Structures are given as C-alpha cells and as structure tokens.
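Throughout our pipeline, every protein is held as a single compact record rather than as scattered files. Nothing more is needed to write down the fold, since each code stands for a local backbone conformation. The record that follows is passed on verbatim for readers who wish to inspect the format.
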Amino acid sequence: MLAAFNTAEALNTQIASIIGFYYPRCINHEQGGFYQYFDADGAVIKTNQQSHLVSISRLIINFAYAASHFGSAELLGAARHGIAFLRSRHRNPDTGGYAWILHDQAIHDDDNYCYGIAFVLMAYARAYAAGAAEVLGYIGESFELLERHFWQENYQLYLDVCDANLTQSSSYRGQNANMHCCEAMIAAYEATGDRRYLDRALKIAERVTIDLADQGDGRIWEHYDLSWTADYNFNVDKPNDKLRPWGYQPGHFTEWSKLLLLLHKHQPAPWLVSRARALFDLAMAMGYDPLYGGIYYGIAPSGEVCADGKYSWVQAESIVAAALLAHRLGNNLYWCIYDQLWTYTFANMIDHKLKCWHRNLTRNNALPKESAIVMGRTDYHAICACIEMAKLYMTGVSRK
C-alpha cells in the first residue's frame, strides 16, 4: 500500500477516485449550482438545498484544479456550471459582495465573510488557469473587493466580516481568513503572473507566521481583537467549533508550512523555509497522537489536548507539507512522516466504499455518532493536497 502513494500515478488515481464521488452526482441541473449534502451511503440529499459560499467555491476549485491537472473539458464544464450559480445567486450585483448562505435559492445570510471571498477568488483563479478565459476579470474584481472593504493598511491584514452593504464590520479578527487569502493570492499569481498577488501573499505570510506568531512564542493563535492582540478567551468553551475553535490548530500550522513552501517556489527566501519547518515540527510535537495515530484538532495554550478528534483536512494538509519539506530540505525524516501519515490516512480516513474521505473521526478513529455540519461536503483539502503531491512527483522528485 505504502508504495502506492510514492508515485504520481497512484496519487492521480486517488484524485480521480475522490472526484468520482462528486462528479457528476453533485451537479444540480434543475436549480443550478451543486448539491452539497450527502447521506451516509453517498446519495444526494435533495431536500437540503442550502448553498454555502465556501462549499460552492471549493467544489469549483476541485473541478477546475482537477481539470487543469488531467486536461479534462468535462471537469472544466462542471467548474463553469458552479461559477454561473456563484455569479447569479451568491453575488450581489449592487455591492459586488457575496452572500454567505442561500436556502432554496433565497438568501439566508447576506453577510460578507473574508474567509468565503478568499475561496471565491481562488475559484476564479483555478478556473482561469484551467482554460476558462472569460473569468479573468473576476480575479481582479474579487481582489479589489477584498482590498476595498477588508484590507487594513495599518495592520497589513484583512478583517473578517462585513455586513450585506459592506459598510459595517465586526470586531472579530482572525488568522484563518488571512491564511486562506494568502492561499488564494498564490493561486491568482500562478494563474495570471500578476506580481501584486504574490506581494500580497508574502506580506500576509510574514505578518501571520512571524509577527502574530511572536505573541505565542512561535505558535499561531487563531483569534484576535481589533488591534490584532491575541484573544485567548474567544470561544474558550468551544474547542470543537468547526469555523472558530478555541485552541492552537496543528492543522493550520502544517497548512501554513505548505503555503510558505509554495511561496518559496515563486520567490526563494530562507525565512520561508525556516518558518515552514518550525511550524511543521511544532505541529507534530504538539498534535501527533502516539496511541491512535493521526493529528489532533486542537491544543490548549498549556499544551494539553483540548479537541482530540481527527479531521481529514488536518491529515491532508500535514501530508502535503511533509512532502514539500522532504523535497525542499532533502531530509528523509519528513518522508518518514509522510509515509506514516499516509498509512494512518489510508487505514482510517479514506472511505473505501464511497472513495471519498471521512470528514472527521473520534480520537480512536471511529465515526462520530453526531457531527455538527456547518458547510457542505467537498473533500477540498484532500483533492488539492493530492494534486500538489502528484505535481511534486511529476517533477521527478527523488526519495532516498
């Protein structure tokens, strides 16, 4: 089994397998957009017509990125199908903003979340890179939306939430939205070659992984107040929250490690590699479960585990970060971690019946009896991580 994930061909098989769960079953031909909710047997739950901005954007990204990777006109068509719904239903033509949630075609939550708009930008970037030339202008449009209403020049970071009219903002500040803005900017740069996206990504990365991390002795806290001072009391009673959990997130440490190494590919700088390695090593030291395997969801400032569930996105981001570190440093230790995490994921996280990945498991790797679902299912992290790893192997990476 292990050798299967050490070739581009096997990783491509995994990508195609996951995509095969969603395409074509998630295409909503009647109302437009995508079905985002599925039962335990993988059947579409057609009675749930909710469209979450993050989920539709992530499905567009999945189809577009896979279309680029495989050269698939069908998958690009699926991405275009999603973009049509994104533009006609989620986007407000008067403000240029995007509704957070729709129910049965009607707006249910019209607030503008930076986190969501980051994925909108990334969706357009991936679609353009895949051959959808008509969306080029949407990339710049989305960037300007973020710059005009979310960017805080004095802090060199993005705020989190604006109201429907983009006139009032919440007092909450968070690193997660900025991390995904950095990710989106990298995708926009790769698609267009426009330097302003790379410059913005580098600035966000520096502010979060160096400046904000200094407040936590090199560890990145999730939540901040208006002055970008760490707020250690925000959601203190919600370590298992799906969007704003209390505690350090080892999965975000490794996700940042990945992003720093992708930035280094475009603009080599020693600090990008050193911080990538330090954050990854912290994640493994703080978050790896030596008894049941895998990486925990949340760690308290004291170092104690505060959320012991295992999430597929955490494992996916950690696997790809390990591969990128192993390749960049030429250090076999990170290939060993890569193999170890893949062994765990193959045995526990992959649903071998449905061919997609479980959302999350308990500490001892059982399916939870109940799991709060705040967004539709997409397997975004698994698909994108496997594509990144397949691309790495396609370059002729050598393992010792």
Remarks:
- The longest strand covers residues 305-311.
